[in-house]
Amino acid sequence: MFPYLMSYKNYVSLGVLVLQTTSLVLTMRYSRTLQAEGPRYLASSAVVCAEVLKIVACMLLVFRDHSFSVRALNRVLKEEIFNKPLLTLKLAIPSGIYTLQNNLLYVALSNLDAATYQVTYQLKILTTALFSVSMLGKSLTIYQWLSLVILMTGIALVQVSSLVICVSGQLSLKPTVIEQAVFFFDC
């Protein structure tokens, strides 16, 4: 169609994704570290609520795709979920791991600052790429490998910069960029 229009849509999509991701992390961090009277909410409750909202949204989309027919919705649910119990059971394992991951994200946000959390969370890209290469036999281009090296370097620098050096019982300033680079290349 129009190449410039597709490029524009890509940039808008990227901007919305960045805005959504950062606002999610910041609001989660704020809600977990808010010093208010009374007990905080349980992370598991937030995870369950989010998953219920996703199920409702998916069911609404299926309902819309089948001309808003309740009968068609019931038929699709019966065919895809209840008539395929083995497949549904196979999906229970990754969904359980996903639920555990989401609970651990709340724990991480309760104990880390938002920037360290966000950068460290990007390790999932590195591990996914490494598992894709080692287990699935996928091949990566030189630019993809270079991107992974840059990502790994950024994560290492953020982790090193978040360390606080203790000198003779007193806390000193965070390490400088040169000290971080020396530490990174020393490993």
Automatic annotation (TrEMBL):
Keyword Methyltransferase: no
Compartments it resides in: Golgi apparatus membrane
A molecular function (GO) term: pyrimidine nucleotide-sugar transmembrane transporter activity
Transmembrane intervals: 12-30, 42-63, 142-167
Signal peptide: none
GO cellular component: Golgi membrane
Membrane topology label: Multi-pass membrane protein
Keywords recorded for this protein, A-Z: Golgi apparatus, Membrane, Sugar transport, Transmembrane, Transmembrane helix, Transport
Main location, first listed in the record: Golgi
Family, similarity comment: Belongs to the nucleotide-sugar transporter family. SLC35A subfamily.
PANTHER family linked: NUCLEOTIDE-SUGAR TRANSMEMBRANE TRANSPORTER
UniProt-recorded name of the protein: UDP-N-acetylglucosamine transporter-like
Organism listed in the record: Sinocyclocheilus grahami
